[in-house]
Amino acid sequence: MVERQNTGLPFMKMHGLGNDFVVLDARTRDIPVSPSLAIAIGNRHTGIGFDQLAVIRNGPSDAHLTFHNADGSMSAACGNATRCIARFLMDETGSDDLHLTTERGDLYAVDAGGGITSVNMGAPQLEWQDIPLSEQMDTLELPIEGCPTATGMGNPHCTFFVEDAEAIPLDQFGPRYEHHPLYPERTNVQVASLIGPDHLRMRVWERGVGVTLASGSSSCATAVAAVRRGLTGRKVQIDLDGGTLHIDWRDDGVWMSGPTMHVCSGVLTPEFLGSVE
Question: By C-alpha distance, which of 19, 68, 13 is closest to 245?
């Protein structure tokens, strides 16, 4: 902590379709991230601001990633941050494919060409205890008004299929279900509409964050839910507030593809770090 406060702390700002991240590279220096530090950096007025804070560490493969929400809590998975970091590491190493580890498990990333990065987010979790839910039930249609589908992608999801996703007041709708008793670890909430063959319009309320312009794991969960409910095939285009992701639920996992952006690099000052309790 003393060293970090004396020298400042380098960071990178990235986003995938407006789903934005602060990334810390802890491969060559120890960077302990407390909930209070994550909250301070995540404040969009007095810090940098992010949907998730991601930390790159050395691991058994190319890198190990951990994720913090804006409220200081942790998440085992963050699909768009994984794609952004994968692009950064590919540019750094010149490799076209990577093996990453997360609390979610082993994730594989490839350069899909044309500035598109693809990540295999692993097999979806479909059983109630793996998502997790608070009691045994069918995850295809939960006993909640609207009969949403529950899916785990390393973090829990609750997907509502509605006639018009644009018409849902997400800032009111999202928090109502984020804290639903069926989800002991809270949940991400999606509203999705079928707008064409294998084509969905989706909006996201992210647990610990709020309304986001995009969410990779939410897109994967929604595509899986749509397949299970017979609404789409296994290759799905999902249009979010920030842009479009392509999801492909294959035998080896759920692949997510889309663009990324490294916005800037900077240094958090010793004065800022010293102000964090």
Answer: 19
